[in-house]
Specification:
Length: about 200
């Protein structure tokens, strides 16, 4: 009898415990805080590094050299974040598929994996191009990796072509990705921005 009452009290006490304020890891319902920070920080960094790169051509030589080195460091930072983000994804549960036709979930998974691969290729091509140009690659002075190969314009042009074409592919995929997210939000009235919103997950 007494034990039973105690159990009821404990259950009542447990019910009064405050909800955890922030969900760091993913759940099967939504992305956690860490995945959201990775997603939106990388979105901003990719936007910034692209903006810098596309404005380099019209700059004076000294501004161009400075901006190119900033672009490289931002690109390396994107590469570091990409690695950590991917490891985090592999170690976390994935939110359940959104409701929709049978082809939609596999297509969404494929698009997400391809986005990871395209981001990686962009970073690798950038580093390859810099190495073939005899330029060191670093992360805002935190570390610097000198060029390990002799300058080679053919190799540089090869990586530059990949860097340029792959950037267009990345842009096309991101546009498709944004349109899919907006479609889920407005047409399907899904909770897609609850799952990957900018604010902390509730
Ligand atoms: C550089 C631009 C972007 C890239 C590379 C990117 C990449 C990704 C990737 C790889 C995922 C899957 C996350 C995972 O499973 O690990 C994802 C999810 C998501 N992204 Fe983006 N994204 C970008 C921009 C955006 C923008 C601008 C929006 C908003 C309109 C957006 C909305 C979303 C949403 C809502 C999800 C969650 C999808 C779900 O619930 O399954 N993304 N993004
Ligand atoms: C996701 C990351 C990156 C994005 C979105 C990006 C994007 C771009 C874009 C759009 C250009 C202009 C291409 C053109 O029209 O000529 C460019 C140029 C360049 N990028 Fe990147 N980049 C990234 C990462 C990197 C990395 C990691 C490096 C090297 C460490 C790098 C090095 C360069 C260099 C040296 C140029 C100038 C090429 C030239 O015109 O000579 N990028 N990048």
């Amino acid at each position: 009898m007494v034990a039973g009452t105690g159990g009821a009290e404990r259950r009542a006490g447990a019910a009064r415990l405050p909800e955890p304020r922030m969900q760091f890891r993913n759940t099967t319902e939504r992305y956690g805080f860490v995945a959201r920070v990775f997603h939106w920080a990388m979105f901003l960094l990719i936007g910034l590094t692209t903006f810098l790169a596309l404005n380099m051509e019209t700059m004076s030589e000294s501004d161009k050299a400075y901006t190119e080195s900033l672009h490289r460091s931002l690109g390396v930072l994107i590469g570091v974040l990409l690695t950590l983000r991917f490891a985090w994804k592999l170690g976390n549960p994935q939110p359940a598929d959104l409701p929709g036709p049978a082809w939609m979930a596999p297509a969404a998974h494929l698009l997400h994996w391809l986005l990871y691969a395209i981001m990686l290729l962009q970073v690798v091509a950038g580093i390859g191009m810099s190495q073939a140009d005899g330029a060191e690659v670093g992360l805002f002075g935190l570390f610097t990796v000198p060029a390990v190969m002799a300058p080679d314009t053919q190799v540089e042009d090869f990586f530059l072509a990949i860097h340029e074409v792959n950037w267009i592919v990345l842009t096309v995929f991101v546009v498709g990705h944004v349109l899919a997210a907006l479609h889920h939000h407005f047409a399907d009235r899904g909770d897609v921005f609850e799952r990957m919103g900018i604010g902390p997950p509730r």
